[in-house]
UniProtKB/TrEMBL annotation, chain A:
Similarity field: Belongs to the methyltransferase superfamily. Fibrillarin family.
NCBIfam families xref list: PRK04266.1-1, PRK04266.1-2, PRK04266.1-3
Protein name, as recorded: Fibrillarin-like rRNA/tRNA 2'-O-methyltransferase
Upper classification of the organism: Archaea, Thermoproteota, Thermoprotei, Sulfolobales, Sulfolobaceae
SMART domains reported for this sequence: Fibrillarin
From TrEMBL, chain B:
Keyword Ribosomal protein attributed: no
Region of interest: Disordered: 372-409
Keywords associated with the record: Ribonucleoprotein
Domain (Nop): residue spans on this chain: 260-375
Compositional bias segments (type: Basic residues): 397-409
Protein name: C/D box methylation guide ribonucleoprotein complex aNOP56 subunit
Skewed-composition ranges (Basic and acidic residues): 384-396
Top-level lineage group: Archaea
Gene3D superfamilies to which the protein is assigned, alphabetical: 1.10.150.460, 3.30.420.220, Helix hairpin bin, Nop domain
InterPro entries xref list: Helix_hairpin_bin_sf, Nop56/Nop58, Nop5_56-rel_N, Nop5_N_sf, Nop_C, Nop_dom, Nop_dom_sf, NOSIC
């Protein structure tokens, strides 16, 4: 197996880059739950600090960073509402990045994957697992607070509407939204780029400044990540 | 007067039209109660704290965020409407930690967030429970696998110690912990490869580190080749892998147990809880048992022997592992075991048939009962003459005494 030769900072806080002796370069984060690997990713220790490899093929946020995300609103101390937490792959890296000062409220509605998500959250005091449908924020309003970042990855046809509705509830003025768009789940008959534009326009009509749209291939085919800033309600 | 009522796991808060907090009612810190009321709220029932708040301030009109509550609020005799993200909720959710501290719900941010963490877990598990079936059987198999692994670890570790002692016999006494012993063998192999920094990396303290290094230099063990070491390392690597699997399984058992049997788990922890399920056969079987059976679960051998021979029945089975039992003086143990078994019987029934969480309450009551036992029976009871005689016999090393000890495990 390849060995780690160098670890360095990236332009984003708490996102690192590791180089291996076979020449490969990967993203990684500092492990908030040392000793625990979440989805089989490699762990390695450098000067007493444990890092976790961040597989961009398994995480759209990882993919977006490698595909040239201009600005990462998720930093140490950020509060995040994460819709579509699934089994916790990306949420675990977000939890690493925001550290204990930050909070990640992870909403997921499929019982099967939530069980896995609980195992991840069990070792991460900043990760709050919430089994609920993102269509009904009035139900989980009792468990969360306003957040700096709304991260949305629910692969639903009406994802953008759900995201906007949640932003009204919980996103701070001046906060950011990151939304992964899966073209196929919105409309199979249209070209992906056409769909991205449609969804982006919806955001603009609802008080968002769209900063960047990143196509995620080859990490995710026909997916894009939108970064937008909320001008307020 | 129109007020905005914000509902949250920490309580209900009333804001006036200027956005000023006029009054509030905090929720209790009983996890089960809080989660019950949050789930009820999804069905349109106002939080109990909301009802109390409305009765306290008697507003003419309230604005909430959950549309489903409106009919129920109107029954309280107030005008009610809903508006998402209204003035009140905006102010509240913008500064949740500050408000939690100012209203003395929490003593610090940490305090608040660890409460919310617990609540979101219990809320989620509670919802999972309704979707669960036969998950208790998964926990049972997992705990049995852990027991198998423990046996294997012991067996392999004994072998490893004997084997590696040919090369470095002094290490056996110095390191009693099997995992640490295997780590040392796997990491260094030959005893003269052992270094201070290397030992530090696997968490050996300075003192022990010095002793190990010292012993490695003066060892009377035989020299062995790389090929010999490679074979020994295969065994130590396997032991370490077993430890890793054990810790993952332990985690898994904890998660499944908190989902399927939260009240039993709250009382005795996931491992002992799973052992009880395992001995009973299933959660439902445990729920059907009387407390007196639960008390001796796992001591069947001793129980049947007592029935057969007419001796003293055992006072506790596997629940002996519960710290307050085995750390208490002998004469208190049976009483504590009985108190615990009574609570376990209630816990198992609720887990099997309703899924509500009352673990906090059960624990509280049990703690109180144990205190009572400790004060009331602080002194050992005077020995009965007959017992005196038996004790003497035991001292003389008669067979009866040994058997009794074995049965009590
Ligand atoms: C593509 S996966 C998310 C992967 C995850 N973000 C990651 O990177 O690790 C989409 C998830 O959204 C969940 N989901 C879909 N609709 C939802 C809804 N209305 N509310 C909550 N979760 C939803 C699905 O169950 C699925 O687990």
């Amino acid at each position: 197996m390849s060995e780690l030769v160098k670890i360095s900072k990236t332009q984003f806080e708490n996102v690192f880059q590791c180089e291996f002796n076979d020449g490969t370069v990967r993203l990684c984060t500092k492990n908030l739950a040392p000793g625990f690997s979440v989805y089989g990713e490699r762990l390695f220790k450098v000067e007493g600090i444990e890092y976790r490899e961040w597989n961009a093929f398994r995480s759209k946020l990882g993919g977006a960073i490698l595909k040239g995300l201009k600005q990462n609103p998720i930093v140490k101390g950020t509060k995040v509402l994460y819709l579509g937490a699934a089994s916790g792959t990306t949420p675990s890296h977000v939890s690493d990045i925001v550290e204990l000062e930050g909070k990640v409220y992870g909403v997921e509605f499929s019982p099967r994957v939530v069980r896995e998500f609980l195992l991840v959250a069990q070792h991460r005091p900043n990760l709050f697992p919430i089994l609920a449908d993102a269509r009904f924020p009035q139900y989980y309003r009792t468990l969360v607070e306003d957040v700096d970042v709304l991260y949305v990855d629910i692969a639903q046809p009406d994802e953008t509407d759900i995201a906007i509705y949640n932003a009204k509830f919980f996103l701070k003025n001046g906060g950011y939204m990151m939304m992964a768009i899966k073209a196929r789940s919105i409309d199979v008959t249209k070209e992906p780029t056409e769909i991205y534009e449609m969804e982006v326009n919806k955001l603009k009509e609802n008080n968002f400044d769209v900063i960047q749209v990143i196509q995620l291939d080859p990490y995710d085919k026909d997916h894009a990540m939108v970064l937008a800033k909320y001008k307020g309600k | 007067m129109k007020v905005y009522i914000v509902e949250h796991a920490i309580g209900s808060f009333a804001y006036d039209e200027q956005g000023k907090l006029i009054d509030f009612v905090l929720s209790s810190k009983d996890l089960g109660k809080v989660v019950d009321s949050l789930l009820d709220n999804e069905k349109g029932i106002p939080l109990p704290t909301t009802i109390e708040l409305i009765q306290k301030i008697k507003p003419e009109e309230v604005v909430v965020e959950n549309e489903a509550e409106i009919p129920n609020l109107q029954q309280l005799g107030v005008k009610a409407s809903y508006e998402i993200h209204n003035l009140g909720s905006r102010i509240f959710r913008e500064s949740l930690p500050k408000i939690a501290i100012e209203t003395k719900f929490a003593s610090s941010e940490n305090d608040l967030y660890s409460f919310l963490y617990e609540v979101s877990f219990e809320y989620t598990r509670r919802k999972l429970r309704t979707a669960a079936s036969k998950r208790d059987l998964l926990a049972i198999q997992a705990i049995r696998a852990i027991d198998d692994i423990d046996k294997t670890i012991n067996l392999f570790s004994e072998r490893l110690r004997e084997w590696y002692s040919i090369h470095f016999p002094e290490l056996n006494k110095l390191v009693e912990d099997h995992e640490l012993y295997a780590s040392i063998v796997s990491k260094f192999g030959h005893r003269d490869e052992i270094t201070n920094t290397g030992l530090d990396e696997i968490g050996v303290n300075k003192d022990l580190s010095t002793k190990i290094l010292d012993a490695s230099k003066k060892s009377i063990g035989a020299d062995i080749t790389d090929v010999d070491i490679r074979s020994i390392k295969m065994l130590s690597d396997t032991i370490l892998e077993l430890f890793r699997i054990r810790s993952e399984l332990t985690d898994y058992v904890e998660s499944v147990m908190k989902e399927v049997a939260p009240n039993v788990t709250a009382l005795v922890g996931p491992t002992l809880g799973a052992r009880l399920l395992s001995l009973a056969g299933s959660l439902e079987d445990l729920a059907k048992m009387p407390a007196s059976t639960i008390q001796v679960l796992g001591a069947e051998k001793a129980l049947f022997r007592a029935l057969r021979k007419g001796g003293k029945p055992p006072k506790h089975g596997v629940i002996f592992q519960y710290p307050a039992i085995h750390t208490s003086p002998r004469w208190q143990r049976g009483k504590i075991a009985r108190a615990l078994a009574a609570k376990l019987a209630i816990a198992a029934r609720i887990d099997a048939f309703s899924g509500r969480f009352i673990g906090d309450k059960l624990n509280e009551e049990l703690k109180k009962r144990i205190e009572e036992i400790k004060t009331k029976y602080a002194q050992p009871p005077p020995r009965k003459p007959q017992e005196q005689k038996r004790k003497e016999e035991e001292r003389k090393g008669k067979k009866g005494g040994r058997e009794k000890r074995k049965g009590r495990r």
